[in-house]
């Protein structure tokens, strides 16, 4: 819808010129329950749709597992195994990994679904490009690694997190505030911004390229100006950025999940 809106605007400006995408396009009007605390716009509806699809896919993929797997089951098992073994167990071990596996698995598949839906025609907006959802998941990750540290170490978690071993005592006046900022403030902030900005920037580039293509072909070239052929280049860049956006969508799901896992590992480690 964002892409459709921009394409329409690009050829219908008051001066007939090119109009690029803007941040306001990520805040569509309310559709359901307008004016109430439960108001839903397109972004919220897409989020609900993705949650339903993720639950449905995971249920269909696990409801009829066979000893001799089909190709679909093999692919599904590969993805599940990659997240469980390659991300969670490799960093946390099986004992601790099993405890936090449900949340970390949810992170990966929810972010993956939210990111990929931005390239689906008719939807064409990644809900993770708005800061609200990444912020909520970053707060969950923040609470999770603090809980993990407290569960494994008790109050010693705070000592290990804030007071580096082997440092002269007078340096703690400088290092302890920095460790607090780095561990308890910077981590959730960077988790939030990394996911949000990557999906926002990628989507804006794609929209810009295809909006430029529409402008060159249907405004410039339609007026007999051969400069409209530049739309071929902007269309090629649009395809390239779409492929890149798909790669970034998968990568960001991996990055968010593995960083959350590593933060737990650092919280429970005896020395870090």
How far from one another are the termini?
47 Å
Major pleated sheet: 2 strands, antiparallel
Beta percentage is under 5%
Number of E strands:
2
Number of helices: 7
* Rg from Cα: 23 Å
Mean pLDDT: 86
Please state the overall shape, judged from the principal axes of the Cα atoms.
globular
Number of domain units? 1
Description:
The longest helix has 49 residues, at 172-220. This protein is 71% helix and 2% strand. A two-stranded antiparallel ribbon has the order 1-2. By secondary structure, the chain is an all-alpha fold. It has one domain (2-268). The radius of gyration is 23 Å and the shape is globular. It starts with a helix and ends with a helix. α2 (42-62) runs antiparallel to α3 (71-116), α4 packs antiparallel against α6 and α4 runs parallel beside α7 (230-268). The protein has seven helices and two strands.
Give a short overview.
This protein is mainly alpha-helical and 272 residues long. 71% of the residues lie in helices and 2% in strands.
């Amino acid at each position: 819808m964002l892409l459709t809106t921009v394409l329409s605007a690009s050829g219908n400006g008051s001066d007939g010129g090119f109009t690029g995408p803007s941040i306001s396009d990520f805040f569509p009007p309310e559709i359901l329950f307008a004016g109430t605390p439960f108001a839903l716009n397109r972004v919220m509806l897409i989020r609900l749709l993705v949650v339903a699809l993720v639950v449905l896919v995971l249920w269909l993929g696990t409801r009829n597992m066979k000893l001799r797997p089909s190709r679909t089951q093999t692919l599904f098992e590969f993805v599940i195994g990659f997240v469980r073994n390659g991300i969670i167990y490799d960093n946390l071990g099986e004992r601790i990994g099993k405890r936090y596996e449900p949340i970390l698995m949810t992170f990966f598949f929810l972010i993956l679904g939210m990111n990929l839906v931005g390239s689906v025609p008719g939807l064409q907006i990644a809900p993770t490009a708005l800061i609200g959802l990444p912020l909520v998941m970053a707060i969950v990750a923040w609470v999770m690694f603090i809980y993990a540290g407290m569960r494994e170490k008790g109050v010693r978690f705070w000592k290990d997190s804030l007071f580096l071993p082997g440092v002269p005592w007078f340096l703690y006046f400088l290092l302890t505030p920095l460790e607090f900022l780095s561990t308890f403030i910077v981590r959730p902030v960077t988790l939030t911004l990394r996911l949000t900005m990557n999906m926002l920037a990628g989507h804006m580039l794609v929209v810009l390229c295809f909006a430029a293509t529409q402008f060159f072909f249907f405004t410039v070239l339609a007026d007999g100006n051969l400069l409209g052929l530049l739309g071929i280049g902007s269309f090629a860049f649009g395809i390239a950025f779409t492929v890149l956006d798909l790669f970034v969508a998968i990568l960001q799901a991996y990055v968010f999940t593995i960083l959350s896992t590593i933060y737990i590992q650092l919280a429970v480690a005896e020395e870090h």
